[in-house]
Amino acid sequence: xxxxxxxxxxxxxxxxxxxxxxxxxxxxxxxxxxxxxxDTARIVLRDLVNVTVGFERLATATGKPAKSLHRMLSSKxxxxxxxxxxxxxxxxxRLGVKLAARTVRxx
Length: 107
Fold this sequence. Notes:
Order of helices and strands: HHHHHH
Structural class: mainly alpha
Number of domains: 1
Strand content: under 5%
Number of helices: 6
Shape: globular
């Protein structure tokens, strides 16, 4: 029988000991979104919320109900651009990071 480990537990453990990993999760989520992979971006954002602010504190920071935020960041979620921006803004503020986009020409 193969040994398995819950990946969310691994993410939480790493996030607790490695602040750069948390920042990298935000970077990855935004990169996925900008590259046309919103489904995966929402999953990464959901993991990021879980290991940083939690949905209740995110609800307070955004003025959106926690249940709505859970739905928005679910695999079937579809947050509006306004809600997406509010979520990213709250995470950015909580993590104390500045965001900058840059373009890279495809090969």
